[in-house]
Each structure stands twice: as structure tokens, then as C-alpha cells.
Amino acid sequence: MAEHSRVTEDRRRDRGKVLIVGDDPESLEPLVAMLVGASYKVKTEANSSLVRNFPELAQPDCILIEWSLSEPGGIELCRRLKDDEKFHRVPVLFIGEPIGPKDRVAGFRAGAADYIARPFQKEEVLVRVETQVSLSRLRGDLVRRMEERDRFLEAVRQAAGSIVITDAAGSIQFVNPAFEAMTGYRAEEVLGKNPRILQSGKHGREFYREMWHRLLNREVWKGELINRKKDGTLFVEQATISPVVDKAGQLINYIAVKYDITLQRSLEEQLRQAQKMEVVGRLAGGVAHDFNNMIAVILGTVQMMLLTGSLDETTIRNLKQIQTAAQRSADITRQLLAFSRKQVLDPKVVDVNSLVRDITKMLSRLLGEDIDINFLPDRDIGKIMIDPGQLHQIIINLSINARDAMPKGGKLTLETAEVVFDEEYCRAHVGFHPGDYVMLAVSDTGVGMDEEIIDHIFEPFFTTKEQDKGTGLGLASVYGAVKHSGGFINVYSEPGVGTTFKLYFPVCAETGEHSVVGAEVVETAAPLTVLLAEDNRDVRELTASMLEIMGHRVIVAETPQKVLEYCRETRLSADLLLTDVVMPGMAGKELQKLVQELCPGIKTLFMSGYTASVISRHGVLEPGVYFLQKPFSVQDLARKINEIFAD
Asked: What contacts 358, CB < 8 A, 6 or more positions away?
């Protein structure tokens, strides 16, 4: 009972605030007493003080104005109050002697809501005031709710995410501008329709069954949707769909808030692909050293045997089969190294148009007469920095791949152009950098590929060809070679339409005075005294044999210490130090410095089966340093020695 009394008392205290304005406040005391007795908070103001303090006046719930008010007059004061932002919603009642119809109309036109006649009747006063205070508060609540609604609607309209509201049956009742921008549909095109108009067909029935199972159980569903825009473009949405129930617990709406995360997912996939390629590349580079040493011994031994000239035809044929198999293994190693971007290269400034034009002359013999070859060069393109042999191999690999995609013949098109990548494009493509690039496109009219195959084509050993028809390293090596040169590669393909590979190489700022213009000429060097340092016995013996066949004198050492002992003990100076880069106890670069102190003027040729990343740590790939990558042939070794002494 006490609690009820306290609540009742609280309500009585909140009956409202009433402002009474008159020239003679004392004459209004009976009216004040009635209102105070009914728990209203009452304040009286003389007309003069009210006009003076008008801006600072607190806002009441109701205003009573004496009809016969002196200057500026009751009607004028009412009009001023209604014109003021602060008071225009506060109800005004006139009080005074009975007012005629004409004056009532004037009062209502000034904004008055009602009037109270003298003599004051308590019941009439309280009913009229309570009615206006209640209406005022209702209007205030309604205005606040409308303002809240407007703020909510404006927030929904300006929300970055797409917002869709449907009824309980799933028919769209509202979409915001973000939905229109995201999907390409205007609001009037989707209102009354089901959101399934966006379905792409990428999700099976089980996916939607699980979604609706949760929604019908009044649970919030969160997930990703692959949907289709009005123009047919697929996009990925991150969606939260919430059921809405009324106070009775009845389902009345669904609200979906969705964000387009297509770019984010694309970047994540590009990053995963790049990381996967990097891991496989490290694996490929890790086996290169030992594999190259073994291949070097096989190829070199076979070549030395073939050079003897005293073998029967069967032996020669068998040796050539071994040579072919070993050379194929060496090619696979080079492709793996190209993919892993750890191949030792000799980059030069290259005119792409000239190089491609030279290659197309021999492509017809390589690809066959049923392949129509076209070259469409852009005359105004810059030069690029790349190993010309590597670019040659890139074009050959892509051309062979195109030929295999056109078993019944077709058209191969090579095209060049200069393009510019801006920052906006590069933000959407992992690994791309803004700048000027030379584009080399290789297109075919073959069978094409679907998205699933495109996702894997650059992976080593992935191939769609029949067994024994391909290693799956051709495109992997193309990928690595392009990346090694600071470039990018894009693939466009559709089943039954054909495929286009677009390669982008950064434009080189250097002039073309050192550009590649033709093939090297190999000459025979004069007899030399060569110090050979190699810790692998098989490679050491083979290399010594190669040098001896060339007519050179060879001092063989299995360790750097043996080389230094020879230089200290003998008075005979050597012409060339041929040393492995990585050896037990001492690196080749350190050995070179010590040998040069003992034998001034001696030249050095480094060799290694390790990858470029390992060799570079030993300072061997610096400008002016001569290097030979294992495995190498007699001709390779002779050419490099000739190059050293020609300088």
C-alpha cells in the first residue's frame, strides 16, 4: 500500500508546468491555487517582466494568457510565442471574461488552443489544462519518435552495408541505396520480389536448407553468399540475417545487413596463391645443388666419351639416349629454378619487338603448319631488363602450350603494348606495383580453361595433358621467370573460346646501347694453367677432363687449403682459378682473395649448383665477377673462359 502511494505521489508531482501571464498576478491567485492544488507547478509572470525575460524563459507544458493583457496584447503575445522555435509547440489558453465568436476566431488564428472564462470553475479549469498538457506531451512524444524514425531511416539510407527488409514470407519491403549500388537493381525493381532473384547458382540446396532452418527457428544466420548482380557479375557478400518478432512473439520481418567483400576475398586468394608458390619455390631451390652436380657428372661423362671417337654405333646410340635423358633432367631443374626465381640469370636491356619478331620466324617450324601465327607489335614501346634466353623460353613455353590447346589447328597471336598501372589497380592486385610496363600477350583459339583449372595452372607438375605428354613445369617456369623480372602475369580464358596470357614487364630506363642484337660467337682460348678447386670428386674429375681436352694444364685440388699450398710452394704462376662457390672450410670468394695475393694477375671463374639466392650471399653475383652455373658442357666452359680472357 505504501509503495502504491509513493508511485501515485510521483505521478502527481509530474502533472506538468504551467505559466500564467497577466498584468495583475494577484487577481490570478484563485486560478493558481486551483492548479497547485491539483499538483501542477505554476509560475506567474507580469506582462512587462515576461517580455523583458522572454529569451531566458523556461519552457512550460502549458501557457495561460490574460485576454485583456496590456501592450503588446494577449493575441500579439500568443503570436510571438508561436513564432518562437522554443514555444511553438506549447499550447496557449486565453483566460478572461466570456469571449465572443469573433474574438475566439482571432485567438485561434494567433495559435491559441482553448480559453477559460471567468469566473473560474475548478473542474472546467483542470479538465481544459489537463487536456492541453496531455495533448502537448503526446505531440512531444510523437515528434521525438518521428525524429528518431527520421534519424534511423537516414542512418539506414547512408549505411555502407546493403540493408534488405522482407516480410515474414520473404517478399522485399525495403532496400537502401547501398543495396542498389551493390547489386545494380533499383528499389522499385525488387520491391515485392523474393531475394532469390540474386542467387547465382553457386550454392546447393543444402546450403539454403541450413540457412532457413536457423531463420525459421528464430536464430540469426551469419555467413557468406555468392550472388549475382543485375548485369550478371558475381560478387561475394558477408551477410547477417535476423528474424524480427512483434510483442506477441509473431515473426513479422527479416532484416539482412550485407557487405560486398569480393575484393577482400580476391586479395586473400591472391595472397594464398603467392604464399603457396613461394613454399613450392623454396622446395624446388633446395634440391637444385645436389641435383645439378649429379646431372653435371652424367652429361659431362657422356660428352667426354662421345668425344673419344672410338666407339661403336650401339654404344654411341646408348650414350646419346643417356645424354638426352640427362639433358631433359637439366631442363627440368632449370624450369624449377625459374619457377622458384632462384635461377642465375644474365639480364640485358631487350627490345621485346625485335626478340619476338626473331622468335616468330622459327615458331612455324616448331608448332606446325596448321597453326596460323600472327604478331601485332605496338611500335611505341620501351625496352625491358631481362635475360634474353629466359624471355625466349617464356615465349616458346607459352607457344607450345597454345599448340597443345589447338589439336586441330588454330590461330596463335602475339601482341605487344605499353601500359600503365595506377595505384587503384595495384591495390586490387596483390604484388602489382604502379608504373609503366611492356605488355606481351600470347593468345590462342584453343579449347580454353575453366576457373578451377586456371587456379592451378602455374603450380609445378600440374598438367591437364595425358601421362608422359608433359611435366607440368612449362607454365610454372613462365610464372617464375616473369616474377623474377619484376613483372606480373594475368590469364583470361573460357572453355571453347581460347586463352590469353598477358605478361607485364617493367619498362627499363636504360638506353639500348647494350641491347641484345645477336648470338654470341664462341672462340677457342689459348692454353692456360688452371687451378681447379672442387670438393665433389666426380665433378672435380670431370671438369679436369674437360679442361685438358681444351688443351689447358690443370692443377687439381679437392680443398681450398690444397690450392693455397700449391700457390705458396711452386714458383709457377697460374692463369685461372676455377673454384666452387661453397666449399668446406672456406668460401670461394675468400679463396679468390688469398690466391690473388699469392698469384697477382690471376683471373677467377666461380661455379656452383646452388641457387642464385645462396650464391648472392657469397658476393659472387656482383658486377664484374664471372660465374658458371652447373651443370655445364664443354662448350659452356670454353665460352666462359674465352669471355674472361677476351676482356
From this structure: none
What's the CA gap between 44 and 33, in Å, rounded? Answer: 12
Helices (H), 227-261: none
Containing 576, the helix (H) or strand (E) segment is strand 576-580
The three-point CA angle 110-116-117 to 5° equals: 115
Q: How many Å apart are CA 483 and CA 345, to the nearest integer?
A: 13
**Alpha carbons 315 and 391: distance in angstroms, whole number:** 37
Number of helices (H) and strands (E) in the chain: give both, helices first: 22, 22
Q: How many residues does the chain have?
A: 647
Q: Name residue 41's beta-bridge partners.
A: 17
Cβ burial, residue 524 (10 Å; 0-12/13-18/19+): exposed
Spatial separation of the C-alpha atoms in residues 488 and 506, rounded to whole Å: 9
The span from the CA of 86 to the CA of 91, in Å, is 12
363 burial (CB, 10 Å; 0-12 / 13-18 / 19+) is buried
CB 175 within 8 A of CB 186: no
Strands 435-444 and 576-580, bridge-based pairing: unpaired
Confidence of residue 192 (pLDDT cuts 50, 70, 90): very high
Cβ neighbours around 332 below 10 Å, total: 18
d(CA 376, CA 353): 9
Sign of the dihedral through C-alpha 438, 444, 445, 448: negative
As given in the structure block, the three cell numbers for residue 366 are 616448331
Other CB atoms within a 10 A radius of the CB of residue 632 amount to 21
pLDDT (0 to 100) of residue 430: 62
Query: 495 is written with which cell numbers?
Result: 572453355
Query: Between helices 388-404 and 474-484, what is the axis angle to 10°?
Result: 150
Question: To which H or E segment does residue 165 belong?
Answer: strand 162-167
Side chain identity, residue 643: E
Can you say how many angstroms the Cα of residue 225 is from the centroid of all Cα atoms in its chain?
19
Does the pTM exceed 0.85? Answer: no
The answer to whether residue 327 scores a pLDDT higher than 50 is: yes
Q: How far apart are CA 265 and CA 271, in angstroms?
A: 10
> What sign does the CA torsion over 583, 586, 588, 591 have?
negative
Q: What are phi and psi of 349, to 5 degrees?
A: -75, 125
**Helix axis angle, 29-37 to 122-158, nearest 10°:** 60
pLDDT exceeds 60 at position 359:
yes
What does residue 79 show for φ and ψ, rounded to 5 degrees?
-65, -40
Does pLDDT of 513 surpass 50?
no
Q: Cα(251)–Cα(244) distance, rounded to whole angstroms?
A: 6
Q: If we measure between CA atoms, which residue out of 577, 582, 589 comes closest to residue 619?
A: 589
Q: Judge whether residue 632 has pLDDT over 80.
A: no
- Phi then psi for 142, rounded to 5 degrees? -65, -45
DSSP 3-state of 178: helix
464 alpha carbon, distance to own chain's centre: 29
